Protein backbone atom coordinates (compact mmCIF):
# COMPACT_ATOMS: atom_id res chain seq x y z
CA UNK A 1 0.00 0.00 0.00
CA UNK A 2 1.46 3.38 -1.01
CA UNK A 3 2.00 6.17 1.50
CA UNK A 4 -0.67 8.88 1.11
CA UNK A 5 0.48 12.35 0.15
CA UNK A 6 -1.76 14.06 2.72
CA UNK A 7 -2.69 13.15 6.27
CA UNK A 8 -6.02 14.55 7.43
CA UNK A 9 -7.00 14.35 11.08
CA UNK A 10 -10.09 14.95 13.19
CA UNK A 11 -9.95 15.01 16.99
CA UNK A 12 -13.39 14.45 18.49
CA UNK A 13 -15.17 14.09 21.81
CA UNK A 14 -18.88 13.27 22.10
CA UNK A 15 -19.74 14.91 18.78
CA UNK A 16 -21.38 11.94 17.05
CA UNK A 17 -24.43 13.94 15.86
CA UNK A 18 -22.14 16.42 14.06
CA UNK A 19 -19.19 14.22 13.14
CA UNK A 20 -20.82 12.63 10.10
CA UNK A 21 -20.99 15.98 8.31
CA UNK A 22 -17.27 16.56 8.83
CA UNK A 23 -16.22 13.06 7.76
CA UNK A 24 -18.38 13.13 4.64
CA UNK A 25 -16.95 16.51 3.59
CA UNK A 26 -13.45 14.98 3.74
CA UNK A 27 -14.29 11.73 1.98
CA UNK A 28 -16.02 13.74 -0.78
CA UNK A 29 -12.83 15.61 -1.72
CA UNK A 30 -11.98 15.63 -5.42
CA UNK A 31 -8.38 14.98 -4.31
CA UNK A 32 -8.23 11.40 -3.02
CA UNK A 33 -4.61 10.65 -2.08
CA UNK A 34 -5.03 11.05 1.69
CA UNK A 35 -5.50 9.17 4.92
CA UNK A 36 -8.07 10.25 7.51
CA UNK A 37 -7.07 9.77 11.14
CA UNK A 38 -9.87 10.19 13.67
CA UNK A 39 -8.79 10.46 17.30
CA UNK A 40 -11.62 9.74 19.72
CA UNK A 41 -10.78 11.51 22.98
CA UNK A 42 -12.64 9.08 25.22
CA UNK A 43 -16.15 9.67 23.86
CA UNK A 44 -19.08 8.06 25.67
CA UNK A 45 -21.62 8.51 22.84
CA UNK A 46 -22.01 6.67 19.50
CA UNK A 47 -18.80 8.02 17.97
CA UNK A 48 -17.25 4.58 17.36
CA UNK A 49 -20.44 3.20 15.78
CA UNK A 50 -20.67 6.21 13.50
CA UNK A 51 -17.10 5.83 12.31
CA UNK A 52 -17.59 2.10 11.74
CA UNK A 53 -20.49 2.91 9.42
CA UNK A 54 -18.03 4.40 6.93
CA UNK A 55 -16.48 1.58 4.95
CA UNK A 56 -13.54 3.52 3.60
CA UNK A 57 -10.01 2.09 3.87
CA UNK A 58 -8.53 5.59 4.18
CA UNK A 59 -10.03 5.98 7.67
CA UNK A 60 -7.94 5.11 10.72
CA UNK A 61 -9.55 5.19 14.16
CA UNK A 62 -7.54 5.84 17.35
CA UNK A 63 -9.13 6.05 20.79
CA UNK A 64 -7.93 7.66 24.01
CA UNK A 65 -9.28 5.59 26.88
CA UNK A 66 -9.42 8.72 29.04
CA UNK A 67 -10.09 12.27 27.92
CA UNK A 68 -6.86 14.19 27.30
CA UNK A 69 -8.05 17.36 25.58
CA UNK A 70 -7.91 18.96 22.15
CA UNK A 71 -4.18 19.54 21.79
CA UNK A 72 -3.03 16.12 23.04
CA UNK A 73 -5.55 14.74 20.53
CA UNK A 74 -4.09 16.86 17.73
CA UNK A 75 -0.64 15.57 18.66
CA UNK A 76 -1.86 11.98 18.60
CA UNK A 77 -3.09 12.64 15.07
CA UNK A 78 0.26 14.06 14.00
CA UNK A 79 2.32 11.28 15.61
CA UNK A 80 0.32 8.63 13.81
CA UNK A 81 0.25 10.35 10.41
CA UNK A 82 2.54 9.58 7.49
CA UNK A 83 1.69 12.14 4.78
CA UNK A 84 4.04 14.73 3.32
CA UNK A 85 1.39 17.34 4.05
CA UNK A 86 -0.90 17.61 7.07
CA UNK A 87 -4.40 19.06 7.30
CA UNK A 88 -6.37 19.32 10.54
CA UNK A 89 -10.14 19.39 10.67
CA UNK A 90 -12.60 19.73 13.56
CA UNK A 91 -15.48 17.40 14.23
CA UNK A 92 -18.24 19.90 13.50
CA UNK A 93 -16.92 21.77 10.45
CA UNK A 94 -17.08 21.19 6.69
CA UNK A 95 -14.69 21.28 3.77
CA UNK A 96 -15.58 22.27 0.23
CA UNK A 97 -14.91 19.34 -2.17
CA UNK A 98 -12.04 21.21 -3.88
CA UNK A 99 -10.18 22.26 -0.73
CA UNK A 100 -7.42 19.66 -0.63
CA UNK A 101 -6.95 19.53 -4.39
CA UNK A 102 -6.47 23.28 -4.72
CA UNK A 103 -4.18 23.57 -1.71
CA UNK A 104 -1.99 20.63 -2.76
CA UNK A 105 -1.65 22.13 -6.25
CA UNK A 106 -0.53 25.43 -4.74
CA UNK A 107 2.02 24.04 -2.28
CA UNK A 108 3.66 21.26 -4.27
CA UNK A 109 7.06 22.21 -5.60
CA UNK A 110 7.35 25.37 -3.49
CA UNK A 111 10.67 26.34 -1.85
CA UNK A 112 11.42 25.39 1.76
CA UNK A 113 10.51 28.87 2.99
CA UNK A 114 6.83 28.16 2.22
CA UNK A 115 5.36 26.33 5.18
CA UNK A 116 1.71 26.11 4.31
CA UNK A 117 -1.28 27.23 2.29
CA UNK A 118 -4.65 28.32 3.66
CA UNK A 119 -8.08 29.05 2.24
CA UNK A 120 -10.76 31.54 3.14
CA UNK A 121 -13.34 30.30 5.63
CA UNK A 122 -16.98 31.06 6.26
CA UNK A 123 -17.94 31.18 9.94
CA UNK A 124 -21.56 30.39 10.67
CA UNK A 125 -22.61 31.30 14.21
CA UNK A 126 -25.40 29.54 16.08
CA UNK A 127 -27.37 32.78 15.83
CA UNK A 128 -27.30 32.57 12.03
CA UNK A 129 -24.76 35.38 11.56
CA UNK A 130 -22.05 34.69 8.98
CA UNK A 131 -18.54 36.11 8.66
CA UNK A 132 -15.61 35.51 6.31
CA UNK A 133 -12.01 34.99 7.44
CA UNK A 134 -9.90 36.65 6.10
CA UNK A 135 -12.47 39.37 5.38
CA UNK A 136 -13.49 39.88 1.77
CA UNK A 137 -10.98 42.07 -0.10
CA UNK A 138 -8.34 41.66 2.60
CA UNK A 139 -4.99 41.99 0.82
CA UNK A 140 -2.19 40.94 3.21
CA UNK A 141 -2.61 37.19 2.82
CA UNK A 142 0.59 35.88 1.20
CA UNK A 143 4.24 35.44 2.14
CA UNK A 144 5.44 36.61 5.59
CA UNK A 145 2.43 37.03 7.87
CA UNK A 146 4.21 37.08 11.23
CA UNK A 147 3.45 40.69 12.15
CA UNK A 148 -0.14 40.31 10.98
CA UNK A 149 -0.59 37.30 13.26
CA UNK A 150 1.22 38.84 16.23
CA UNK A 151 -1.09 41.84 15.90
CA UNK A 152 -3.97 39.48 16.63
CA UNK A 153 -5.28 39.00 13.11
CA UNK A 154 -5.48 35.21 13.22
CA UNK A 155 -6.80 34.84 9.71
CA UNK A 156 -5.30 31.37 9.41
CA UNK A 157 -7.31 28.65 11.15
CA UNK A 158 -6.22 25.05 11.46
CA UNK A 159 -9.27 23.86 9.53
CA UNK A 160 -8.23 25.98 6.54
CA UNK A 161 -4.50 25.21 6.64
CA UNK A 162 -2.44 22.60 4.81
CA UNK A 163 1.18 22.57 6.02
CA UNK A 164 4.34 20.64 5.29
CA UNK A 165 5.26 17.86 7.69
CA UNK A 166 8.88 19.03 7.46
CA UNK A 167 7.91 22.20 9.36
CA UNK A 168 7.43 20.18 12.54
CA UNK A 169 11.19 19.67 12.77
CA UNK A 170 11.57 23.41 13.47
CA UNK A 171 8.40 24.31 15.33
CA UNK A 172 7.42 21.13 17.17
CA UNK A 173 3.90 19.88 17.84
CA UNK A 174 1.00 21.53 19.66
CA UNK A 175 1.70 22.93 23.12
CA UNK A 176 -0.46 20.86 25.45
CA UNK A 177 -0.27 23.52 28.17
CA UNK A 178 -2.93 25.49 26.28
CA UNK A 179 -6.57 24.70 26.98
CA UNK A 180 -7.77 27.01 24.22
CA UNK A 181 -5.89 29.04 21.61
CA UNK A 182 -3.23 26.40 21.18
CA UNK A 183 -3.95 26.69 17.46
CA UNK A 184 -2.91 30.33 17.66
CA UNK A 185 0.33 29.40 19.37
CA UNK A 186 1.06 26.80 16.69
CA UNK A 187 0.42 29.32 13.91
CA UNK A 188 2.65 31.94 15.58
CA UNK A 189 5.50 29.42 15.65
CA UNK A 190 4.82 28.42 12.05
CA UNK A 191 4.77 32.06 10.93
CA UNK A 192 8.00 32.76 12.82
CA UNK A 193 9.86 30.31 10.58
CA UNK A 194 7.85 30.09 7.35
CA UNK A 195 5.80 31.99 4.81
CA UNK A 196 2.31 31.18 3.53
CA UNK A 197 0.32 30.97 0.33
CA UNK A 198 -3.36 31.92 0.16
CA UNK A 199 -6.21 30.29 -1.73
CA UNK A 200 -8.76 33.15 -2.07
CA UNK A 201 -11.83 30.93 -2.19
CA UNK A 202 -14.17 29.83 0.59
CA UNK A 203 -13.19 26.21 1.11
CA UNK A 204 -14.13 25.71 4.77
CA UNK A 205 -17.33 26.30 6.72
CA UNK A 206 -16.88 26.67 10.48
CA UNK A 207 -19.95 26.11 12.63
CA UNK A 208 -19.65 28.05 15.90
CA UNK A 209 -21.95 26.45 18.46
CA UNK A 210 -23.09 27.80 21.81
CA UNK A 211 -20.94 25.26 23.66
CA UNK A 212 -17.76 26.02 21.69
CA UNK A 213 -14.80 26.04 24.09
CA UNK A 214 -13.33 29.02 22.24
CA UNK A 215 -16.36 31.25 23.02
CA UNK A 216 -15.72 31.56 26.78
CA UNK A 217 -14.41 35.10 27.17
CA UNK A 218 -12.48 34.43 30.37
CA UNK A 219 -10.75 31.41 28.84
CA UNK A 220 -9.91 33.35 25.69
CA UNK A 221 -8.48 36.24 27.70
CA UNK A 222 -6.35 33.85 29.78
CA UNK A 223 -5.18 32.07 26.63
CA UNK A 224 -4.18 35.32 24.93
CA UNK A 225 -2.20 36.28 28.02
CA UNK A 226 -0.57 32.84 27.95
CA UNK A 227 0.31 33.34 24.28
CA UNK A 228 1.77 36.80 24.94
CA UNK A 229 3.89 35.62 27.86
CA UNK A 230 5.16 32.57 25.98
CA UNK A 231 6.23 34.68 22.98
CA UNK A 232 7.22 37.79 24.95
CA UNK A 233 10.71 37.99 23.43
CA UNK A 234 9.29 37.70 19.93
CA UNK A 235 6.65 40.36 20.61
CA UNK A 236 9.24 42.77 22.00
CA UNK A 237 11.00 42.75 18.63
CA UNK A 238 7.97 44.69 17.37
CA UNK A 239 7.34 47.49 19.92
CA UNK A 240 4.17 48.85 18.30
CA UNK A 241 2.57 45.42 18.21
CA UNK A 242 3.80 44.48 21.69
CA UNK A 243 2.45 47.69 23.23
CA UNK A 244 -0.94 47.34 21.57
CA UNK A 245 -1.25 43.70 22.58
CA UNK A 246 -0.35 44.55 26.18
CA UNK A 247 -2.90 47.38 26.12
CA UNK A 248 -5.57 45.01 24.80
CA UNK A 249 -4.85 42.59 27.62
CA UNK A 250 -4.93 45.39 30.18
CA UNK A 251 -8.22 46.69 28.81
CA UNK A 252 -9.70 43.19 28.97
CA UNK A 253 -8.66 42.72 32.59
CA UNK A 254 -10.14 46.13 33.46
CA UNK A 255 -13.50 45.74 31.76
CA UNK A 256 -14.65 42.11 31.83
CA UNK A 257 -16.89 40.82 34.60
CA UNK A 258 -14.05 39.20 36.57
CA UNK A 259 -12.05 42.39 37.15
CA UNK A 260 -8.33 42.10 37.80
CA UNK A 261 -7.12 45.66 38.15
CA UNK A 262 -3.66 44.52 39.25
CA UNK A 263 -3.07 42.82 35.90
CA UNK A 264 -4.82 45.65 34.06
CA UNK A 265 -2.41 48.10 35.69
CA UNK A 266 0.65 46.00 34.90
CA UNK A 267 -0.20 45.49 31.23
CA UNK A 268 -1.16 49.14 30.78
CA UNK A 269 2.16 50.14 32.34
CA UNK A 270 4.02 47.80 30.00
CA UNK A 271 2.22 49.30 27.00
CA UNK A 272 3.02 52.84 28.16
CA UNK A 273 6.68 52.06 28.86
CA UNK A 274 7.02 50.48 25.42
CA UNK A 275 5.31 53.34 23.57
CA UNK A 276 5.09 56.31 25.99
CA UNK A 277 3.52 58.83 23.63
CA UNK A 278 0.15 57.10 23.25
CA UNK A 279 -2.32 58.68 25.60
CA UNK A 280 -4.74 55.75 25.77
CA UNK A 281 -2.02 53.64 27.38
CA UNK A 282 -1.47 56.26 30.07
CA UNK A 283 -5.19 56.75 30.68
CA UNK A 284 -5.73 53.02 31.13
CA UNK A 285 -2.79 52.81 33.51
CA UNK A 286 -4.12 55.67 35.66
CA UNK A 287 -7.64 54.22 35.68
CA UNK A 288 -6.48 50.70 36.54
CA UNK A 289 -4.07 51.99 39.20
CA UNK A 290 -6.80 54.04 40.91
CA UNK A 291 -9.25 51.13 40.81
CA UNK A 292 -6.61 48.79 42.17
CA UNK A 293 -5.86 51.12 45.09
CA UNK A 294 -9.56 51.67 45.84
CA UNK A 295 -10.24 47.94 45.90
CA UNK A 296 -7.31 47.41 48.29
CA UNK A 297 -8.65 50.14 50.59
CA UNK A 298 -12.14 48.64 50.60
CA UNK A 299 -10.75 45.16 51.21
CA UNK A 300 -8.61 46.35 54.14
CA UNK A 301 -11.54 48.25 55.68
CA UNK A 302 -13.72 45.15 55.52
CA UNK A 303 -11.07 43.23 57.44
From TrEMBL:
Instruction: Give the residue spans that cross the bilayer.
Output: none
User: Can you give the residue ranges of the Glycosyltransferase 2-like domain?
Assistant: 7-143
> Which InterPro entries does the UniProt record give?
Glyco_trans_2-like, Glycosyltransf_2, Nucleotide-diphossugar_trans
Q: Which Pfam families match?
A: Glycos_transf_2
How is this protein named in the record? Glycosyltransferase 2-like domain-containing protein
Query: Which organism is this protein's natural source?
Result: Candidatus Ryanbacteria bacterium RIFCSPHIGHO2_01_FULL_45_22
Amino acid sequence: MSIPLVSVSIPTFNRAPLLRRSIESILNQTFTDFELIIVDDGSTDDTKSLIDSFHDPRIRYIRHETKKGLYPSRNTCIKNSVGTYIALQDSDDEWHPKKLGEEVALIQGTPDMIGGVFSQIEKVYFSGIKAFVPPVNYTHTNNNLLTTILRGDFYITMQALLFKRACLENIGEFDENFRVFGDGDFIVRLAEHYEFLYNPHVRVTLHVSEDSISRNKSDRRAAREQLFLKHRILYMQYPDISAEFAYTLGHAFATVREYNFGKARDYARLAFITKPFRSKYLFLYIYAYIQYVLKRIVKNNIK
